[in-house]
Specification:
Blueprint: H1 3-11, H2 14-23, E1 29-34, H3 37-42, H4 50-64, E2 70-72, E3 75-77, H5 84-95, E4 100-106, H6 112-117, E5 126-132, H7 135-145, E6 150-153, H8 156-159, E7 167-171, H9 180-189, E8 194-203, E9 209-215, E10 222-228, H10 231-235, E11 242-255, E12 262-271
Amino acid sequence: MSFLKKILRNWMPPIFVKAYSCYFNRGIVFRGNFENWEAAQEATKGYEATEILDRVRWAAKQVVDGRAKSERDGVIFDAIPYPFPLIATLLRAAVENGNRLKVLDYGGALGSSYYQCRDFLEGLKDIEWVVVEQKNFVKIGKEEFENDQLKFAQSLAEVGSNFTPDVALISGTLQYLSNPDDLLKSMVALKVPYIVVDRTPILVNGNTIISSQIVPKSINKSEYPIRLFSEQDIKKNIDNDYEEISSFGALDGTIGFGKLLSNFKGYIFKRKNI
């Protein structure tokens, strides 16, 4: 431990230690409060940046080839961080559908959640897991990662009306969309039995704001717009048609400090009257 770090740890309040760590590439940090999404985009590099796709592609390949147990956002792990609230929802939906499961995974990269959950889904009769992603992700997904269960599409329209999902998953995605309300309304319109919104930053205090997320060099140095939500803004498009059956702390934990301090959470919604 460096001399400066010892001083920080022993004498400064924890919030300043966290700020120091973030500033020196030791963790993710949020920056700024932008007037609108366009202003945040102009000040940052988007998630579509080629280097980010390359990193995610590499990490997913490690999992498929058995050289890593799991990956998330381009980072590999030697153990699977099982998302048990999601797994429980998937199994519940499958039981209600004759041990068959169809998942619509919006923003699912190259299948991260699929690979994290598949160990617990082996006993099901049939699994169809469709990831909806950006064009560049879908191209790589189709060429290198599709299998009998995992498929990729560029839009809900491309998925088609013949695919009727039991669960719609939005994990670590909603905060990076220019208009998240549109996506939530689209999911509600599909009348999916279950909607799972996971890994979503909820501000500890205050209303929804648009900021930027700075990812350190130790992960994959980049910066892109992010929306930090108030809880009511997550639920306002869902409450009329769905009931919340559970909420939980997401694996990202707490990120940020001061007015940008956010707890990452997940929500499980079940359609009413089904």
